[in-house]
Every structure is written in C-alpha cells, then in structure tokens.
C-alpha cells in the first residue's frame, strides 16, 4: 500500500509588539504609502527582548498540537525551519524539544531561508515514510528582525518575526483511498544566486551574525518564474492541474510577487491566501502562518487541494501539493 503523510493540525503565532509603517517612517526615509504600494505590507510583529526563535516556535507548536489533538508525548520528530536560530548551535529544534518537556524523539533544524518550511514538510514526509518516527512537528520560526540593519530602508521595512507549525503523520488507508495527504513536493536551489539575498556574517566567515543584504529587483526578477516552475512541477508529480487547485498558499514576501505568480498561473485572486499585509516577510514562518489563518477562518476544508510555495535566499524554492 502506498504511504502518504498528512497534516493533522496547524497553528500560528505572532509576537505581541506591532511595528507599523508609520512608526518606521519616523526612523528611515520611507512612507506608509510606498511600503503598501510596492510590497503590500501594513505592519509587522517584533519579538520582545529575551523572546527567541524557539519561544515563538513553541507557541505555534502548542497551537498546532492542540488542533491535532496530540501532546508532546505523541511527537517523535521535530523539524524547525529557521534562518535565525537562538544560537549557532544547538539546533533551535532541540530547544523546542526541551521547552515542550520532551526527552524522546529526534530534533533538527533546516536552513533553506524563506523556503525552509516547504523543505521541512518534504523532509518530515520522507522521515515518516521511512519509519524514522511516527509523528512530526514541523515548524517555521523566525526572529528575522534581529538580522536587519534598521538604517537600511531597502530591507528593514520588509521583514518581521513569527512562527507557524503543523503536525504530520502517516495517512490511514481510508484517507489515502480518499486521495488525501501530501501528494507531491518539488524542491529546487541554485547557489549561484547566493549573494542576491544574504547575511554578511556567519560563524565560519566573520564570527559575527551580520545583516541582511538584498538586491531586491534581482530577487523580484527571478521570483515569479521560479515560483511558477516549481508549482507546475509539483502539479505534474501529483497528477493535477492549476484548475484543480482550491487554494494557493504562497510565501508572503511581497504582494506584487504573489499577484504576479497567481496571474501567471491563471489562478483567480479569491483562491490565493494573502497575509503579508499583517506580518510582512517572516521568512520560513510565512507559509505556515498563512496556512494557519486560512485553516482557522474555514477557507481551507477537508478535501480541498492546496498548493504551498516559497522562494528565498540561496536561491532556494519549492512547492507542496496537499489534498487536505
Ligand atoms: O523572501 C525572499 C524573497 N524576497 C523578495 O521576494 C523581495 C523581492 N524584491 C522586492 O520585493 C522588491 O524588489 C522590493 C520591495 C525590495 C523593492 O521594490 P522595487 O519596486 O523593486 O523598488 P526598487 O528597489 O527598484 O526601488 C525603487 C525606488 C528607489 O529609489 P530611486 O532609485 O528610484 O530613486 C529606492 O531607493 O524606491 C526606493 N526605495 C524606497 N523608498 C521608500 C527603496 N526602499 C524604499 C523604502 N521607502 N523603504
């Protein structure tokens, strides 16, 4: 019998502190109008002092576990997609494991920047199918604000902090017969583009954390084509077409990129989940955050065909096709 993983619950968490465009305009030469028009962001959330990526991850994880009706005792794989771990090591996932009171199972981080969550879902899918565990907590969590140069208006207005999580296990025979579960993943990268979006520090290069640098228009130029390519690839692997999709849940980086990808795919705007206005680009957290909103408000229902998609630093890009 074919094995297939399935998502049992979703949760999202945004830190309390909201930073508006108007507040940013007090410190850098920007405006609410420019940010809304060019990127579609109204506000972002910023983690409190002493609140780390693993803390955000735990908040989202608890919500996802609540939605899936499981407890930490039921989890034996933790994967955290993050580009902003609490420490260079250990993995943020092991800190999540500790904070959830777990001594059992395995935990690791995945670093694929904004595509991290899509990579993590594909990794959990493989681990579950290969019997490395029975239930996975897959989290995208970032304190991206800590990588920002707050004097650089070309980057500091774009990002925010947050976390989203899902619980995954293997679908039952009846669920597989109903066509439910993760149908296909498509993952890509091309390291030749590394310096179009990167952080100018690291343990092996400078011994410091560094700040984000981005050739924004260059990233933009690549984004729509790469996103649509990988979406078509996941559709082909999953034996579906664009017309079959009920929901498109893209990486929330820029409203214009989301609209561009939706248009190129020929998707009606009402099938596209957009939350970038509320939390800006939260890197690996953005896809599960958007997913958590669309599940919580009842848009995504059992049986719906859902496409997750992300593209980011590396470049990395990827998509997951899921029958909910
Ligand atoms: O998550 C990973 C993926 N990342 C992305 O998807 C980001 C992709 N890139 C983008 O979203 C866009 O390229 C940006 C939002 C970063 C920039 O938008 P753009 O339409 O490509 O603007 P631009 O960089 O071409 O800049 C246009 C103008 C420039 O001024 P001049 O040279 O025309 O006088 C910039 O200096 O806008 C200026 N500008 C700003 N003005 C007000 C740049 N940042 C700002 C700002 N406020 N914050």
Give a structural overview.
With 324 residues, this protein is α/β, with parallel strands linked by helices. It has two domains: 5-176, Peroxisomal Thiolase, Chain A, domain 1, CATH 3.40.47; 180-323, Thiolase/Chalcone synthase (Peroxisomal Thiolase, Chain A, domain 1, 3-Layer(aba) Sandwich), CATH 3.40.47. Helices cover 33% and strands 25% of the residues. The chain has eleven helices and 13 strands. It has helices spanning 21-24, 32-38, 53-68, 92-99, 116-129, 153-156, 173-177, 216-238, 255-265, 276-279, 286-296; strands spanning 5-13, 17-20, 43-46, 77-81, 106-110, 135-143, 161-170, 181-189, 197-199, 212-214, 247-250, 305-312, 316-323. The strands form four sheets. Strands 1-7-6-4-5 form a five-stranded mixed sheet, sandwiched between helices. A four-stranded mixed sheet has the order 8-13-12-11, sandwiched between helices. It has a two-stranded antiparallel sheet with strand order 2-3. Strand 4, helix 4 and strand 5 (106-110) form a beta-alpha-beta unit. The radius of gyration is 18 Å and the shape is globular. The two termini are 20 Å apart. The mean pLDDT is 98. The protein binds oxa(dethia)-CoA.
